[in-house]
Write a structure and sequence with these properties.
2 copies of one chain form a homodimer.
Chain A lengths: L16 E7 L7 H12 L3 E7 L5 H9 L4 E6 L4 H7 L2 E2 L1 H6 L4 E4 L5 E4 L2 H12 L7 E5 L3 H12 L4 E5 L3 H14 L4 E4 L9 E4 L23 E4 L8 H8 L4 E2 L1 H15 L4
Parallel strand pairs in A: 1-2, 1-3, 4-6, 7-8, 7-10, 8-9, 10-11, 11-12
Antiparallel strand pairs in A: 3-5, 5-6
Helix pairs in contact in A: 5-6, 5-9
Chain lengths: ~270, ~270
Amino acid sequence: MSDNELGLPLALSGETRLFAVVGDPIVQVGSPGVFNQLLRKAGIPAVLVPMQVAAEDFATWFEAVKITGNFDGYVATMPHKLEAARLADGLSDNARRVGAANVFRRDPDGRWIGHHTDGLGCVGGLRERGARLAGGRAAQLGAGGVGRAIAFALADAGVASLRLHDADEGRVDALLADLGAEFPALALERGPAGAGGHDVLVNATPLGMAAGDPLPFDLSDLGADTALADVILRPEVSPMLEIGRERGCITQTGHDMVRAQAGLIMAHLGLA
Amino acid sequence: MSDNELGLPLALSGETRLFAVVGDPIVQVGSPGVFNQLLRKAGIPAVLVPMQVAAEDFATWFEAVKITGNFDGYVATMPHKLEAARLADGLSDNARRVGAANVFRRDPDGRWIGHHTDGLGCVGGLRERGARLAGGRAAQLGAGGVGRAIAFALADAGVASLRLHDADEGRVDALLADLGAEFPALALERGPAGAGGHDVLVNATPLGMAAGDPLPFDLSDLGADTALADVILRPEVSPMLEIGRERGCITQTGHDMVRAQAGLIMAHLGLA
């Protein structure tokens, strides 16, 4: 496959079905490149286009999406994941738990259904890389939107314990309560984590994007049997993951997590 | 150029600029095929997608277009050409005279400006084919939307006389009054026309689409020096044009007229 095929849909016609990725800003998104290539490979006469829409205009935009007959679904990125979920007609279990969604489809009955793939992509990617999830011990920094999504996905994957920390204690309280209600057998802990004794460490905060940021976890006793996942996209390999690679750990970057979601998003959109 | 390139844009990314053709129905439109090929050839990172929007939903759709930052313009087809012109912030002279527009761009100051290319495309195509326009005698059947557009374009092209007929006499009255106000030197006539003595005959009605339709004009005395133009798309060569071709006339089909508009539309959109 040549580089030119990344982002290239099938030829468009009046019968082309329409999908979008909506966000603000939009120029940085990778979805048009990834999904048009997948649509082309699958021979699906559809195109996914970028649409730049400010937070305060989302509801206006969605009204137009609903009345555009050949508009079948969309991917929501910053800052729309909460508002889009609020305006949807239904949510998957995962999206309902997280309180947000990043992919929406129009069902045959006209209802718009949201699904959240951030957490499922992160944890699915870790599983594929061989991380120990079922019965494992996990620690996570960050209990915001993406943190909620990943924590529920870790619980779904059967981790035995989950240690959570976030500078915002209220977020931790809320997420621990929600997790406890749905997963009574899961051992929940709070506070900063060291690497020792954990099978999985997840950074679900922006820590590592700025030079001089502290590490998300104390990695002094990090062993090769701990898997590390980061959500940040720049730098592509965060300082935490660099250390993990030096120690021989399984590591998953933010880009890996994005790639792991592509199939989940195509499936929710009815395209795979 | 292979058939596959018709409708193929450049690869899409987050930086792709967005254009649409909006109509109801939409599956029949040729614009995505034509314009994506032109955009690709010109190396412009933009895509034109079809959007199916019902007449009553147009205003809702346009509100969303206005707040979508990377949406730069659109082509309006049936049934939106009048409402779209009404909602635009400004119109070209041609669109203002016709009272409708089929192509709209967002200017750098944020204003949406409409232009009408149906008439200019029809008459420009006739000129390229060698029809006599300046000083010529023209007759036209149909004084509806496309009829108004073509009549003003014929007047702009300097025809000496224009004979108009339409089953709706009120339309003829209105168009003759509007033409007379702007082109006082143009000799205006009304009533059905025979071919004799005319340099140009234009059918701007659906006559010829249905089997058994009467001819738009009495062609009994049609000579080879009369140019014939039709607006209908099916059949591709109307019965009127078939007779014209038998007599050795210059003929222009509805598809020819659509093709003649492509450059005008690209220019109005700032893409050529």
